[in-house]
Amino acid sequence: MKLSELSVRRPVFATVISLLLIIFGLVSLQRLAVREYPDIDRPVVSITTTYTGASSAVIETKITQVIEDSIAGIEGILKIESDSEDERSSVRIEFDIDREIDGAANDVRDRVARVLGNLPEVTVEHIGSTSVPGCEGKGVVDLMIPVTPEQLEPVKTLLSVLGFQKQVAPAGHEPWPESRPMRVGSLEHEGTRYNLHVHVIPADSPEVETQRRFRDRLREDPTQRDAYVARKREILAQGITNSGDYSEAKGTVIEGILKKDS
Predict the structure, then answer these.
(1) Domains of the chain as residue ranges with CATH
(2) Which of 4, 44, 101, 159 is deepest in the core (most CB within 10 A)?
(3) What would the pLDDT profile of 124-170 be if each residue is shown by its tens digit?
(4) How far is residue 135's CA from residue 95's CA, in Å, rounded to a whole number?
(5) Which residue in 141, 142, 161 sits closest to 153, CA to CA?
(6) Whole-model pTM above 0.70?
(7) DSSP codes of every residue in the chain
């Protein structure tokens, strides 16, 4: 009996046999061994960024997401994987197999460079008590960034990206104006956390040179440094803890030191 005749006379039997053959073929296909794989490594570009002292949340929102947004739309991207952890951001971009690796890397480099190009080039100076060896303070690290009018807003944006917050004015005192802002934050280094006050000051303001002269005077003259330290001890002994009142109480000794320098 021919196969065609059997299929016509017994269609159910023929259907079952066909289904069994299909199932057997599918199972065999899944178990079929492949002895040699073709070279199909896809082009991959990785971006690693470190930011000492930053938490994983800051890394995610201020670095990883910014990088991901900047590279979005590059030709041939199949997927983007990222990982944000304390002090470190990692972004992995996988491209289509047809994309040439050097071209992909150049595109990524150009996009990241655009982000970096938006960052202002500024000078950060260490001022305040912690900038003077042997000068006791309240543990706050004061930094000064002199800026031109064009740099003011980009610097404020950059500080925000880095996790710095606007100053909360102490009771009874006004905050620094946004034309001369102060930003506060913290940084962990070698197991120690430091509180940071960043003063953004117009470069043409006399305050820039005043801050420098006061710092340099204390560094050069131990007598003036000790007088300054003694005054701060007196203020703390009086129970003055409000940061605004504390700064005002130091005003007399600061003015005296600056006058002797003039």
Answers:
(1) 1-32 (no CATH), 44-117 (3.30.70.1430), 125-261 (3.30.460.10)
(2) 159
(3) 999 999 999 988 777 789 999 999 998 888 888 788 877 889 888 88
(4) 56
(5) 161
(6) no
(7) --HHHHHHH-HHHHHHHHHHHHHHHHHHHHH---S-----PPPEEEEEEE-TT--HHHHIIIIIHHHHHHHTT-TTEEEEEEEEETTEEEEEEEE-TTS-HHHHHHHHHHHHHHHHHTS-----EEESGGGSTT---SSEEEEEEEE-HHHHHHHHHHHHHTT-EE--PPTTSPPPPTTS-EEEEEEEETTEEEEEEEEEEETTSHHHHHHHHHHHHHHH-HHHHHHHHHHHHHHHHTT---HHHHHHHTHHHHHHHHHHH-
Cα dihedral 166, 168, 173, 178 in deg (nearest 10)? 10
Amino acid at 1: M
pLDDT digits (tens, 9 = 90+) for 164-218: 898 888 888 888 899 999 999 988 878 888 899 999 999 999 999 999 999 999 9
Return the structure tokens found at 145. Answer: 């960034």
pLDDT digits (tens, 9 = 90+) for 39-76: 667 889 999 887 666 678 878 887 888 889 889 889 99
Residues 6+ apart with CB under 8 A from 44: 92, 93, 94, 95
Half-sphere exposure of 166 (CA within 13 A, CB side): 10
Answer yes or no: are the C-beta atoms of 260 and 186 closer than 8 Å.
no
Phi, psi of 24 (to 5 degrees): -60, -40
